[in-house]
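Figure caption, in words: inputs first, then the predicted bound structure.
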Amino acid sequence: YQVQVDGEIFVAPIVINAAGVYADEIHNMICEEKIRIVPRRGEYRLMDKNCGDLVNSTIFQQPSKMGKGILVTPTVHGNLLVGPTAEDIPDKQDVDTTAEGLTKVLNLGSNSVDALDGRQTITSFAGLRAHLVHEEPAEKSDFLIGEAEGHPGFIDVAGIESPGLTSAPAIGEYVARIVKNIYPAERKTDFIDSRKGIPSMALATEEEREALIRENPAFANVICRCELVTEGEILEAIHRPVGATTLDGVKRRTRAGMGRCQAGFCSPKTLEILSRELHLDLAQITKEGTGSEILTGKNKDTAPGEGGTWKRTQAPVGKEALHE
Ligand SMILES: Cc1cc2nc3c(=O)[nH]c(=O)nc-3n(C[C@H](O)[C@H](O)[C@H](O)COP(=O)(O)OP(=O)(O)OC[C@H]3O[C@@H](n4cnc5c(N)ncnc54)[C@H](O)[C@@H]3O)c2cc1C
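Bound structure (flavin-adenine dinucleotide present):
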């Protein structure tokens, strides 16, 4: 098979099609029997930590043919998560939240927990499930996993709807066995089978905190006040293999910006750290890659290094627009 990535062509004996909502397009390039994936959008509200103990386990409702329904659940970090909706939409990129969807989340969630207060929502977001539709014959058809008929080495992992995340480790092992049957790969003996996490000041004991600060005083410099994330943790996130290069990259690795103020306080500081550590201009640092630049230049027409304050992009970037 030839796989083209950014203009470069790779030749591979095995292709694993795990392209989420786009898995139908990849499948249909190769296979005669076509499949269709409809994006099924789900919207969520994330509530402040002061609601985190309203429930102590996940409260499910009666599932419907659209899915598992709206749930109310505590998160591992102590927030409360309410959602998701389930709505088939035409656009595979449309992860916008809607007033209608978020109202529905609150109203239906209130059937399970009547103390839900919409004003405690600190952020909202949406994701797309890859809903596999089989018109002919009409049959239930999620989790399409296996080598495509008549196309040796082309392996579909398509239509991985909920609970695809929970199933991911098992799917990975299953697909590895399929690959091994086709391609006699030997298991590496020197692979690294564990990963040392980034230290967390929020979770550390007093003694651990002191030790970290002694080792590197940057662990005493709090950057994200809501989640108690320090410069030391952000530096680790940036300088590890496959290090963070964007605000979202730092956020996903450390939780800086995930708290009540949703990065209002820490994003300028995180921007400065990224710029300093990656030797990039502040205007080159993005939220989540090209097109999500945060600063456009300086307010006054001064040459770089001659003062002036930085200008933000006029429209808030992406989904954050909703929350500003
Ligand atoms: C609202 C919602 C609620 C959910 N709830 C749960 C739950 O409670 N429990 C649970 O277990 N699961 C849940 N899931 C499902 C879970 O998120 C999915 O099953 C899982 O993410 C599917 O994994 P995937 O790898 O198949 O697809 P994805 O996670 O979508 O990954 C596909 C990847 O392929 C990339 N890609 C696409 N096209 C190309 C291309 N042409 N070239 C290169 N890369 C490409 C995409 O960028 C993406 O990174 C939920 C999903 C949603 C949306």
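Confidence is low (pLDDT under 50) at residues 317-324.
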